[in-house]
Amino acid sequence: MRRPLTSRVLALLLAGWMVCSLPAALAIEPDSIIISSVEDLQDLSKRCTLDAWSQGKTVTLAADLDLGEAEFTPIPTFGGTFLGQEHTISGLRITSAGSNMGLFRYVQPGAVVQELTVKGTVAPEGSRSAVGGIAGENAGTLLNCAFHGAVLGESAVGGIAGRNSVSGQIIGCTASGAVTGESATGGIAGRSSGLLLNCENTAGVNLTRTESELDLMAEDAGAALAELAAAGDEAYYLLNSCSDTGGIVGWTAGVVQGCVNSGDVGYPHVGYNTGGVAGRQNGYMSGCVNHGTIHGRKDVGGIVGQAEPYLLMDPGRDSLEQLKKELDTLESLINRALNDAQRTGDDISARLSVMGDYASAAQDSSRRLLDQVVDFADGTVDTVNLILADTTKALDQLSPALKDLSEVGGRLEEMSGNLGDAMDALGDGLEVGDQAVSSLHAAAGALRQAGPSLENALDGVEDSLDALTRGLLSDDSDSIYTALTRLHRSVGQLGDAFSSISQAADALGDFLTGSGEFPDLIAPVRELGRALRSIASALDRVDRAIPQLREDWREANSSMKGAFDELRDAGDSMDRALASLQLALDQTGQLSGPLGEALDRLKDMSGSSAQAGQLLSSAFSTMSEVTDTLTEDGPRTFTPLGDKARESTDSLYGSLNSLSGELEALNRDLSGGDLLADDMRAINRQFNVVFDVLLNALTDLRDNVEAGPEAIIQDTSDEDISATREGKVDSCSNTGAVEGDKNVGGIVGAMAVEADLDPEDDISLSFGATFETKAVLQDCVNRGPVTAKKDCAGGLAGRMDLGTALGCQSYGPVASTSGDYVGGAAGWADASIRGCFCKNTLSGGSYVGGVAGWASRVKDCRSIAVIDGGTECLGAVAGEMEAGGTLSGNLFVDTGWGGVDGVSYAGRAEPVPFEALAALPDLPQEFTAFTLTLMADGALVAQLPFLYGDDLSRLALPDVPEKEGCYGLWPEFDTAGTGSDLTLEAVYTPWVTLVSSEECEGKLARALAEGRFTEEAVLHVTVSTQTPPASSGEETCVWDVSLTGAQTPGGTSIPLRLLNSTGGSAEVWRLEDGQWQAVEAGQNGQYLLLTMEGIQGTFCVVPQASPLPWPLIGGGAALAALLVLAGRRIKNRRAVKASASASQPQEDTEPAAK
């Protein structure tokens, strides 16, 4: 029964353009567990110690839980279904030692955790590997979950899951906060071999650094690292540990589809393999977007830090076949020796038995290894992941078509109503038979019913596709088949509606033909009827193709593609018919009565349906293209050589080593007869043959290595690109700034093979068998600035050791501040660059090119390059090409540099005028459109479009947004003849609060202005020619005061301090309208305090006449008063004494006289 395979195929093709497979769902009624308290969750954790306990059970979270005050142990292992119901578990805190840590330690294959939000911190001690906010290790499905908080670990650290295994699916999940780890660190998952679909991260990832005494900014940092590595210094390993850091996933070999990162990633000058979406990847990545700022040391990219190739290994099948054959022979010889050993001692027989076991084990291992090398049988789950990724990608591509159909629905409903009214009016206004009038009215009534039915059918198509998407993502068979049923019904209704409208148009044509009136309208009405009938017929083909899907999806898909092509052509015909009808209606005269009303309704119909045909054509064309792509690609499969093959190899060598040991011991113990001795000699010889086969294989490998990479690796990235799904980055875009030291790119930092033991070195080959590599960069767009400190900066890829870049677009500025190799697409590319569009401003040292700084193969690229800086090897296409390299079909606008190293080549790197380039077909609209982008504090202020070569001084720039304590200015830029996009970041500077005049009196400024001024503010105080007031004296000063460059409005009041050089009090006068007005002024030292209205004024300072300073006068008066008072008191005392002397007796004075 083929239903498990065809159900998803049916879903996609019924949508019109998708093919995939769907595993059947088995409905099992599970046990039900309700979690409504912290205690319930704790109990669940205890019970989930046994892996089988939760399998088949459904756990429902019935309330928000706070673990802040609770002792909680992570749920050890979970194998059932956990329904979060959009509830939140907050206060999670995990700090115990160990690995595989999260709310769930292990999510088993087949388990589902959905619609759960977790808030908290997961920061275990100890080994700290596989650490995630929701799950430590996920092998099941995490659907629509969210984590908000901090996750810290050592390796495989992710906001949602630490490790996502091959069977793991993380779908529609979000993370915010901070994620920190040393290796394989991502906003959603640390390490993933499974599926990451439609996830979003806003968390900062590895935004802190490991402290080290090594200066990574130094020019000799590379040599210092090498010295530390040779000495085994711990700092070297600390630095190396910060690797594989991504906004979504640290390292992925699986599928990453439709994910968006808005968080910043990495620390400046620290870390290897840092990317906005993935640090390192060799799986399949499609439709991902990065908006965050990306920092790192080496291999730093806006989407992927290091894009490794997918390796197809050929371990030498001939050698394995021969090895298996010789092991069979060896086993036969041992069996014969056992038969001949029946008469020997037990020791010898026992050794022979053990040897037989080892030989059988080696034979089994070689057989398993051969089978695994032939068919790579580990790819089943990967296939499902790719199918689901293709499904969502196809649905994303259909979004514009659905939008067009939605707009068409309203227009066609209005068209049907107007056409019905026109038909009724014609029936009433023309003298024709009753039967013709009756038929026309009947057709008009049917038409009015068809209009709403048509719009409802289109709404049904859109709604059923949304439901189908949800069903596919949740792998819900019931939802899928419900959506398919509705889709089938909607398609049928759509066909019936178009059929009714076409019949009405045919009836109108018959009526006009029979009446003889309006002959110019007959042909366009007939043409409209045919177009509508073709649409109905094609929709019927889609409807009839549905039953074929269960039997032969490819044949059914081919039929549907033909139907969509027919729909596209019919849409074009409908558009032409409506245009012809409009022209014919415009040429008819003015009529009154029912006929005039009929013509008015026909004109309304023609106007309301304008562009309806074009929209239908565009929508069906998109459907045809998507269906065509899926038909060509077919079902997606890829099968990596997995751990089982490596286990078989290890088992084979182990068995052979053990067999060798037993053989040596047997030779020592052997004392049997000649027959057994002959057997042993035969075994010895055969064993030597086995090892000769192994040695020959190793010798071949060694010779290949000595012969160089060409003998080991064959890069097939340029072959069968559309069908490639491994090692591919497809349809991704970056808008964030990307900064690093070396190998820095807008999409990928480097395309190479990583040497894990030394991330300073990437290797292009490995010792082993031969390899086929695939690394593809297709249809990606970079709009962010790229800056490298040293070598290799590219708008798409910093360095390409292998692979191909096809159909990509590069628009941001690219620069190396102190290095070489700068290119619009790639800085250095020993790889293929085809059909790319580069419009960049470039600067660096040597080897600066519009497409590549240095390249080996550049074909059919288009370039508009402005080279702002460079020393030598500068070109509009390439700075330099490899001798004997491929250069063909490249065109560029002449902006002052030749095609390659200053020289242009006809047909290979040829200049063309901008107008000629813009007229080429299939150019991206963005490539020939130019934009001035204005940013302030990282936020978009405005985007102003302009034409190539425009004088930008004519553009009116908006004001810089205000910022507390600062003023902002747009930086100066070259406004003449601009030929590239420009981005200006507002420059904020703290306000100047006090400005001194340029003119001084001695050491003192003549004036000081207070307020908020820019650094360009200048205060001048000059002697005025104005006549002072009449009452002024000789020491009067008249000054003209002006403040320029302050960005202060003219009517602003500005506090001003004017110098009074006399140092005393003074009157201040201000000249207003030619008249002097007295101004109130305070005094502070030698400065007079007043206010200036506006940014300029004329002031007169009149010192007040004062021969003796008031303090001195006051002090002298007081002293005089004191002196007078003292004099009076002395005089009074003398008078009192004189009076006392005159009143005493005479005798009293006699002794004295003696």
Report on this model:
The protein is α/β, with parallel strands linked by helices and 1154 residues long. The protein has six domains: 32-209 and 241-310, Pectate Lyase C-like; 320-378 and 642-670 and 683-700, no CATH class; 400-632; 717-757 and 765-908, Pectate Lyase C-like; 930-989, Sandwich (Immunoglobulin-like), CATH 2.60.40; 992-1103, Immunoglobulin-like, CATH 2.60.40. It is built from 20 helices and 76 strands. It has a 43-stranded parallel sheet that branches. Strand 1 (31-35), helix 2 (38-47) and strand 2 (57-61) form a beta-alpha-beta unit. Helix 1 (3-15) packs parallel to helix 10 (477-515), helix 8 (399-429) packs antiparallel against helix 13 (593-608) and helix 9 (434-474) runs antiparallel to helix 10 (477-515). The chain is globular and about 140 Å long. The termini are far apart. Residues 1-29, 211-219, 228-240, 373-381, 634-642, 763-768, 1107-1131 and 1133-1154 have low confidence and may be disordered.
Summarize the structure.
With 1154 residues, this protein is an alpha/beta fold. The protein folds into 6 domains: 32-209 and 241-310, Pectate Lyase C-like, CATH 2.160.20; 320-378 and 642-670 and 683-700, no CATH class; 400-632; 717-757 and 765-908, 3 Solenoid (Pectate Lyase C-like), CATH 2.160.20; 930-989, Immunoglobulin-like (Sandwich), CATH 2.60.40; 992-1103, Sandwich (Immunoglobulin-like), CATH 2.60.40. 37% of the residues lie in helices and 29% in strands.
